[in-house]
Amino acid sequence: LVEHLRSRNFVLFDAQMMNPHLERFGAYIVNNRNYKDLLRQALERDCSII
To answer: How many CB atoms lie within 10 A of CB 27?
Structure first.
């Protein structure tokens, strides 16, 4: 899933809970302010899951 999303120009994957499995794929915890900035940037991108 992560590779598919990257190939489709996605830059944000909100998992909401950290665990070792997600950490293997580069997941990291961000504070609310940084999350809002990342979300804004992600919403500005042209991407499609299909």
So the answer is: 17
